[in-house]
Every structure is written in C-alpha cells, then in structure tokens.
Amino acid sequence: MAFFLRFSGQAEAEPTVADPLVPSHVPFSSDLAGQNPIALKMTVDLPPSKPPISRRRFLSAGLYAGAGLALYSGEIERHWIEVTRRDIFVPGLPEAFDGFRVAHLSDIHMDEYTEPFLVRDAVDHINRLHPDAVFLTGDFVTRELLPKRLSIGPAWQCASILDKLECPRRYAVLGNHDVMVGAPEVTQALTDNHISVLRNASLPIERPGGRFWVAGVDDPVKGKPDPDTAIPPSIRNVSGEPIVLLCHAPDYADKLLTFSAGPSVAFMLSGHTHGGQVRLPLMMPLFLPPLGRKYVEGWYRIGATQLYVNRGLGTVGFPVRFACPPEITLHTLRKA
C-alpha cells in the first residue's frame, strides 16, 4: 500500500512531457477504466461545409450550358467548313492523271437551313483549291411539306451560285430530296448552269495520253439506279481507263457489286449521311438515313472498290452540327 501511494504520489508530482506528435491542445481523459488514462479524445478543425446546390441554381446552370451548346452547334460549327485532303490510289490510272485533283461536295440542302452565304463560302473554298474537276453527290435542295413548286426556286438559286465555280469540269448526281422535289426541274437548273447531271450515264475525262470515266447513277432511295446502263460493257474493265462512280447513297455500294458493272468501279463517291450530323461521345450518330447507316463518313474499301462518304454542307431536321462539321473533300488521284 505504501508502495502504491508512493508510486501514485510520484506520478502526480512528475511533470507532464508533451508528445511532439500530439498537439498540445488535445485533452486527455482519465475517467474511463478506473481512472486509467487510456482514452484519447482529439478535436479536429474541419473546413466549413458548403451548402448543397439548390435546384434553381442547378437548372440555371443546365440552361446556360444548353444555350451555349445550341449556339456553338447551330451558328459556329454548322458554318465551319472543313477541307479534307486524301490521296486515292487507283489501279490502272493513266500517268497523265497522276495527281489529278477532284473537289467533292454533297448535300447542300438549299433553303431549309442552308443560307446562300454558306454555299458561296463553299464555292470560294473550292476555287482556292484549284481542282481539276468538281464532283457533286446530290441533295441540292430539301423536300419539305410545302408544295413542290416552292422548292424549285431554291434549286435555281443553288445552281446559280455553283456556276461561280471556276473549274469547268463539273459533274453531279441527284439525291433523294432532289427526286422528291422534281428530278427534271432540278436537273434543268443544274445543266443550265453548266453542271453535267449523270442519271445512269457516264462521260470520259480526257487528257493527252489517257482518260478515265466518271459515271453516275440515279438516287437509290427515291430514284431508279441502273449501274449496268450507267457503265455499259464497252467501257468496263478497259485497261488504263478506270471508272469513278457518283452515287448519292453510300450503302448502295454493297448492292452495286451484284451488278455486272459493279466490279469495274475503282472509286465511288457518296454523301447522304451528313456524317451523322450530331455525334455525341459513346453514342450513335443522331442522323442516319436509309441507305446511309453502314457507311457513315470517310473512306472505306468494299472488295476492289474504294468508297468515300462526304459529310455534306447542309443539314436537315434541325440546323445543328456537333463534332461533325461540314466538309469539302479534295481527292488527289494517284497511280497505284
């Protein structure tokens, strides 16, 4: 007992040595387990908590973000023309055409949302590229719920702007909207403005030392395409005279191979899809029309045939583009 009292008294008399690892303001408690100092209470200063965001502030932020996205996709990217340059290696291409440059434009959709200044801007872009030929793959106008006669005017307006192209070699096919508006009327507007319209037909492009053929088929969605008429036996698989085909709808490339003329096509150019028009991350493109759901944009190879799908200039349904700007493609033909 004396020892215990002496030990206790000594313990009470000894000065407390501060642990350098424990803040000096931390209190110890000896009120647990029979006055043994085994319980440690520590006070921690936490930063003040922020009040939760209110529903009103959350909705306001969403509205601002949505307005910004609408402004960008509707007024900035929709008018932001991108020029894509690509070399196309064509088997049998004559030496005279090695380096021949083709400007490719599609889906203007005049009048619905495409303003005249945007078409003029596209023409200016093409003129600065100095191509050897211009290929236009359809949908110059848009078929709306209005009477057809009201869409004929935009066809003439579009064609008159395209007539400002400085390149004299201009070839076109019709798209599904052109056929719905009126194939004869749209064709006349284009031909009267010095654009050759190929409806199941073909024409040679010639230079001293060689030639190749540009063929075009009627729109596969609303028209009556006939590759065997467009590419007659007399020009198929002629050595040193490759065939380039214009066809509005890209997915027709698979059916093309079932025709006798199909395997003779070295290169096919299409549009129709607008590249999907709106491409959100981890999601399918928003705009995928019939016969435009497999080959959406860019370059493909189907058997021996190469295919390029242009994203187009205009829009349909709604005047927006996102992660999918309008496109002019400059194809440089190379001898394979």
UniProtKB/TrEMBL annotation:
GO molecular function annotations of the record: metal ion binding; UDP-2,3-diacylglucosamine hydrolase activity
Signal peptide (residue range): none
An annotated GO BP: lipid A biosynthetic process
Residue ranges occupied by any Calcineurin-like phosphoesterase domain in the UniProt entry: 100-275
Keyword entries, A-Z: Hydrolase, Metal-binding
Assigned GO CC terms: membrane
Domain of life, per lineage: Bacteria
UniProt cross-references to InterPro entries, sorted A to Z: Calcineurin-like_PHP, Metallo-depent_PP-like, Metallophosphoesterase_sf
Keyword Glycoprotein carried by entry: no
PANTHER family: PHOSPHODIESTERASE YAEI, TRANSMEMBRANE PROTEIN WITH METALLOPHOSPHOESTERASE DOMAIN-RELATED
Name under which the protein is recorded: Metallophosphoesterase
Organism field: Candidatus Sulfuritelmatomonas gaucii
